[in-house]
Design brief:
binds ligand C6P, about 15% strand, 7-stranded mixed β-sheet, Aspartate Aminotransferase, domain 2, 2 domains, alpha/beta, 4-stranded antiparallel β-sheet
């Protein structure tokens, strides 16, 4: 993480002007307040332009063409991979596998590494705050292979119970797979410590970085993790592309995930030989424009500085938590802002989270309501759903004030 001395305040108002959609009005005739960033972020103009430029000037399939367009498109796509490798401090660009999203990355891990390395009775350790995409692939594999899945429990304030984790490690899991930031509670987990403990217990470590990589400095070598998954669309990039990071020595030993073009060197009627990393895991025509857009999104985030992004979000989250908690009947789940990313999931006495979101929408405020694909985390706190406001670099305290004002309106309507 960038040292405090190097942290600079971000100017959210200036940043906003780079995001065309933030200038629109809603059906309420008021400026949009977009607080659904944990679901997907908005895209700056430079990301949109980079993709338009590709389609207008370079559109071609990559890795196989020998004409000028194909060469330029390949170069732009591979430049994005290099940029991403540097962004998370991977040892090599060969460790960056492009997938569709975090979900596909975790499925790749379960299907490829899991199939090759896990046998009946082997343990995989997850946590109770995981998104469904870091639960269901393991449940599917467990049903097939007879694996034992265990879950690190949560404390009342939404942290991982590290004492319980220590005990669960004594049972010898082969893999610990956990989120670096919960999309419901906002909890930022102590990933380095969790990884260190897992390694000492002889387990490999996979991190769901869907909510962390967009919002804070993440260095896979410093964290000491073996695998990591994240999605472009939550970090100012397009939908349709994500990353599966893996340590090169591990990736080399893993069988391919999907079969087809690009992932092979040679095919004969009686078999095939595999391509090198990372292409071994990238079958078929890749998401080319999306890769280029992803590269532009990383460039934009680098220009802000991830230490600054994290510091700014801590500030706005602290403000939002303070303001939300002053509303009678509102309960925000998860830890205090110090251990929390830019997410506030809350319930409001006497109202249903979906009704809250609907009324906020009428006021031009976009939030999400439901279980946020984290049903076990909701169950832990005996609730079915929450309303969730989630922030990014372009949100302002004025927008938090509009949210709070609108919530008082909701209270008025429901007599809550
Ligand atoms: N969470 C949310 O509104 P995909 O959909 O594959 O890009 O990301 C899946 C995913 C995995 N892990 C975490 C921690 C996540 O938050 C998400 C996506 C969105 O919270 C959509 S459910």
């Amino acid at each position: 993480m960038t040292s405090d001395a190097k942290v600079h305040a971000l100017d959210a108002r200036k940043i906003r002007s780079d995001f065309p959609v933030l200038g629109r009005e809603t059906q309420a005739g008021v400026p949009l307040v977009y607080l659904d960033n944990a679901a997907t972020s908005q895209k700056p103009k430079m990301v949109i332009d980079s993709m338009t430029h590709y389609y207008e000037h370079q559109n071609a399939n990559i890795h196989r063409g020998i004409h000028r367009l194909a060469e330029e498109a390949t170069e732009a796509y591979e430049a994005a991979r290099l940029r991403i490798a540097k962004f998370i401090d991977a040892r090599s660009w060969r460790e960056i596998i492009f997938t569709r999203n975090t979900t596909e990355s975790i499925n790749l891990l379960a299907r490829s590494w899991g199939h090759a390395n896990l046998q009946s009775g082997d343990r995989v350790l997850l946590t109770e705050m995981e998104h469904h995409s870091n639960i269901v692939p393991w449940q599917m594999l467990a049903a097939e292979r007879g694996l034992v899945l265990e879950f690190v429990p949560l404390t009342d304030d939404g942290m991982l119970d590290l004492e319980a984790y220590r005990s669960l490690l004594e049972r010898g899991p082969k893999l610990v797979s956990f989120t670096q930031m919960s999309n419901m509670l906002g909890t930022i987990t102590p990933a380095k410590e969790i990884a260190e403990m897992a390694r000492a217990a002889g387990a490999l470590v996979a991190v769901d970085g869907a909510q962390s990589v967009p919002h804070m400095p993440v260095d896979v070598q410093d964290l000491g993790v073996d695998f990591m998954a994240f999605s472009a669309h939550k970090m100012l990039g397009p939908t349709g592309i994500g990353v599966f990071y893996g340590r090169e020595d591990l990736l080399k030993e893993m069988p391919p995930f999907l079969g087809g073009g690009d992932m092979i060197k040679r095919v004969q009627l009686d078999g095939f030989t595999l391509n090198e990393l990372p292409y071994k895991f990238e079958a078929g025509t890749p998401p080319i424009a999306e890769g280029i857009g992803f590269g532009a999104a990383i460039e934009y985030l680098e220009s802000l500085g991830m230490g600054n992004v994290h510091a700014y979000e801590q500030q706005i989250t602290e403000y939002a938590l303070d303001r939300l908690e002053e509303i009678p009947g509102v309960r925000v789940y998860g830890p205090s802002y110090k251990d929390k990313g830019a997410v506030a999931s809350f319930t409001m006495e006497g109202t249903h989270p979906h009704d809250v979101a609907q009324i906020l929408d009428n006021e031009g405020i976009a939030v999400r309501a439901g279980h946020h694909c984290a049903m076990p985390a909701h169950e832990k706190y005996d609730i079915l759903a929450t309303t969730r406001a989630s922030f990014y670099v372009y949100n302002t305290e004025d927008e938090v004030d509009r949210l709070v004002e609108a919530l008082y309106k909701v209270k008025g309507l429901f007599g809550a």
